[in-house]
Structure formats: C-alpha cells, structure tokens
C-alpha cells in the first residue's frame, strides 16, 4: 500500500464517517452527542454512552480506533477487498461500528464505508 493510496483511502473514510455521524446526530436525540474531525483525528462523543476516537496513523498506514465498548483496535487497508480490517479477528471497521453503535443507540446503524478507485 503506497502512502498516497493510504492517505486517499483513510481520508475518504474519515470524511464519510464525519458526515454520517453529523446526519446521525440529526436523527437521534442523544444528550451531549458531538462529532468533530481535526488533524486526522475523528472524535465521536456519545454522552454518557462513551467516546469513540478514530485516528489516522500514517507511519503504520493504519486507522486506529478507541472504543468505549471493545477498546483499542488497529485497522489495515486490504487493497484486494477494499476494506479496513482488524487482523486479530478479521472484522472490518464498518462491521464493528455498525454492531456497537446499533447497540448503544438502540437503533440500526448501517455504515457502509466507501473506497476510492485507484
């Protein structure tokens, strides 16, 4: 994975998630819900339900996730499948976010992360 491909793919994911979470905020009524993205770090504050932090890690070509439910995970981009995978359990970033956020918000969350064409 080249640095250019990493930066393009990770930025697409971060921008998509920022927009998705902003729209989610409009649909749900959660106290102290906030999302912000700055300098490669996306923070999703879910009030008393916890805070998610996703950040780009260019030296490792990864996206790191800190979850209030499952803890820290490191995702690598798989060019063949065009997905961000956590290699310890082979789950994808969007699968984990869909599962955990659906549980904590009590409504179906359906994130389908896009990818750039080469």
TrEMBL record:
Name of protein: ferroxidase
Subcellular compartments: Mitochondrion
Gene3D superfamilies (alphabetical): Frataxin/CyaY
InterPro entries: Frataxin (IPR017789), Frataxin/CyaY (IPR002908), Frataxin/CyaY_sf (IPR036524), Frataxin_CS (IPR020895)
PROSITE patterns: FRATAXIN_1 (PS01344), FRATAXIN_2 (PS50810)
SMART domains linked: Frataxin_Cyay
Single Gene Ontology MF annotation: ferric iron binding
Catalytic activities: 4 Fe(2+) + O2 + 4 H(+) = 4 Fe(3+) + 2 H2O
Family membership: Belongs to the frataxin family.
The organism of origin for this protein: Glomus cerebriforme
Enzyme class: oxidoreductase
Classification lineage: Eukaryota, Fungi, Fungi incertae sedis, Mucoromycota, Glomeromycotina
């Amino acid at each position: 994975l080249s640095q250019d491909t990493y930066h393009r793919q990770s930025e697409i994911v971060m921008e998509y998630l920022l927009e998705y979470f902003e729209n989610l905020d409009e649909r749900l009524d959660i106290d102290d819900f906030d999302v912000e993205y700055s300098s490669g770090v996306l923070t999703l504050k879910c009030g008393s339900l916890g805070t998610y932090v996703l950040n780009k890690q260019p030296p490792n070509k990864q996206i790191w996730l800190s979850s209030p439910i499952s803890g820290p995970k490191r995702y690598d981009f798989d060019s063949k499948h065009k997905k961000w995978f956590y290699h310890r359990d082979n789950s994808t970033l969007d699968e984990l976010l869909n599962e955990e956020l659906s549980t904590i918000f009590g409504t179906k969350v359906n994130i389908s992360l896009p990818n750039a064409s080469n």
